[in-house]
Design goal:
Aminopeptidase; about 15% strand; about 350 residues; alpha/beta
Length: about 350
């Protein structure tokens, strides 16, 4: 069963990592605590490659905070199934709860209001999002009633009629650096979580990594219960490598999606800049609810952070949990099975289909 609070999710992950005989490191987020007062930390579970091997599988959960409950459960289930299995040909690094504040407080952003998955920019680069500029005041007000699905639908429909579908997607999901209290805020410098991940990637490279497969686990926009893999090629040959590794996917695991925003600052983009052609980094979206409900949840997330109280506004908190980690045992069972299959598929792609 998936946990929906940080302490329980962390405990399950650490138990699974211990069973897999992984080396475990805790990086504490100083000055912040979970709702129950316990510490917040990123937990790193690593298993070195077998002798003579130098490839690494890196799996990240919690980049978008609250979405980390799904990713954490998949990491834990895979470690439990995988530990002691024969024939392992690569090292493994599990990065649990990269954004521990957001995960613990049921938010997508970090403690500074930064969307970590828009923060991997080459600062001092700052981004203006013209569409978001037009929508900010309408969709980020203090009145929760103004964020109803009906009200948002009217706003979105009017914008789409005037500017088009792609412009609406770019406005709602694309990065912006002008409103620190808004959605998809890039920040103005590398975040704590970004620096932590970059240090881990550097450490893997220093240990002689030849090839690195990175999966950044998210929850939201994909067919319910399915996984969709998104890659953002950054150099010649990367798209062809992706085709070799993933092909057309597996049942319940698709490759590619329609209606993506013009993204900048993604974690996978930053990882590619960091390690170059030695890394193949993909976003794995695990489907939860429909696109419009996700868009509503993005607004409620921002409202709860800046105008509400995550502990007292239980109704809003539960709507966010239902959007990003539904309390549905059938969905859970399907997601866990496909999540484990996804990690096995990724490892096989790294060790068997890379070249």
């Amino acid at each position: 069963m998936m946990a929906r609070d940080f302490a329980a999710s962390r405990r399950l992950f650490l138990e699974a990592a211990d069973q897999a005989r992984a080396s475990i490191e805790h990086v504490v987020l100083e000055g912040s605590g979970a709702p129950d007062g316990t510490e917040l930390a990123v937990d790193l579970a690593s298993i070195v490659p077998p002798q003579g091997q130098s490839d690494w599988l890196v799996v990240v959960s919690g980049t978008h905070g609250i979405e980390g409950y799904v990713g954490s459960a998949i990491q834990s289930a895979w470690l439990q199934k995988w530990h002691g299995s024969p024939g392992r040909r690569c090292g493994v690094l599990m990065v649990h709860a990269l954004n521990p504040f957001g995960m613990a407080w049921w938010s997508r952003s970090d403690r500074d209001g930064i969307d970590l998955n828009r923060n991997f920019l080459e600062f001092p680069q700052l981004l203006v999002n013209p569409g978001y500029e037009r929508l900010h005041d309408s969709i980020c007000g203090p009145r929760r009633e103004a964020l109803s699905l009906a009200a948002l639908s009217e706003i979105f429909a009017a914008f789409e009629r005037e500017h088009g579908t792609q412009a609406l997607t770019n406005a709602l999901i694309g990065p912006q650096s002008t409103h620190a209290d808004g959605m998809n805020f890039t920040g103005t410098a590398p975040s704590w979580s970004r620096l932590l991940l970059e240090a881990q990637l550097d450490h893997i490279r220093e240990r002689g990594a030849r090839r690195v497969m990175l999966l950044d686990l998210h929850a939201g926009v994909a067919p319910r219960g399915e996984a969709v893999l998104l890659h953002f090629p950054s150099e010649a040959g990367a798209a062809e490598r992706a085709r070799r590794i993933w092909g057309t996917g597996l049942p319940g695991i698709g490759v590619g999606a329609q209606g993506l925003a013009d993204y900048s600052g993604l974690l996978v983009q930053g990882a590619q800049r960091r390690l170059g052609p030695s890394i193949h980094a993909v976003v794995a979206e695990i489907g939860t609810v429909d696109r419009l409900t996700i868009r509503e949840a993005l607004r409620l997330d921002r409202w709860l952070r800046h105008h509400g109280d995550p502990l007292r506004d239980e109704t809003v908190r539960e709507r966010l949990i239902e959007a990003f980690c539904p309390r549905d045992p059938v969905w859970e069972e399907v997601v866990m099975r496909r999540g484990v299959a996804l990690l096995e598929f990724a490892m096989a792609g790294l060790t068997e289909r890379w070249d």
